[in-house]
Amino acid sequence: MTEILTVRKLCKHYPAFELHDVSFSIRAGSIMGLIGRNGAGKTTTIKSLLRLVRPDGGSVEFLGQPVDEHAAALRREAGYVSGDLCYYPRKRLSQLTAVTRSFYPAWDDARYEALLRRFSLDSSKRVCELSAGMKVKYQLACALSHGARLLILDEPTSGLDPVSRDDLLELLRSLCERDGVSVLFSTHITSDLDACADDVTYLQNGTVAQSVSLAGFTAPWKKLTGSEAALTPALRSALRGLRVHRGEFEALYPSDLPCPAGCREELADLQTVMVYLEREVETV
Q1: Is the dihedral of CA 97, 101, 102, 104 positive or negative?
Q2: Nearest CA to 190 among 218, 212, 211?
């Protein structure tokens, strides 16, 4: 499977923050989850990819071409959807669409109208009349209507109700499988990525801690709990993100090791692994 986006050693320096040597790639027709706590560098990475800020180092290739030399192609072939993108509040959707359409030669009116119906959007409504979730759906309708081959989603589901979130995730899966669309999906709602992501890139303090398949991120670990009395030196050395409270401990534990006597184990999802890895960083 070919790579639609390749990021190599991306750097951006601010007085209080540094994005350092961020590297990852997204396969065509796949969903890459971009995860990390607040301030880890997710939004800076996305803005650097889109050249909304100028990176201080590194390279980005889109469809095999350097973004710096083919920025117009990236803007035509990629769609950006943000949970907090602002529009003129008194403008009607039809007015915004008329402007947006003019930038994209491949704009498909029939697809746009179909997406409005699917998302229950009324083009005569003003932006100020829309909920946060409806604004996200409008952005997605526009992105898909100009034939975007890469969707860059920055916290798109934060304002959606559970039914709308599920509908969006199903749509993303369908786009990847049927149309070969690729997705970079930055979110704090890790359960959404559990449901749809193929791969994850995990940022810690401006660097890539891991960039692997979703299974490669979660499968090595299980959650272990038990009595503090069971914490032998050998067990302690195998745990990650250990927390002890009122005589009980909890931590990540390698999935290929047997459950110690007197302890309890359970499968670790994306959120569990991320939380305990972050706890470990806090205690270093």
Answers
A1: positive
A2: 218
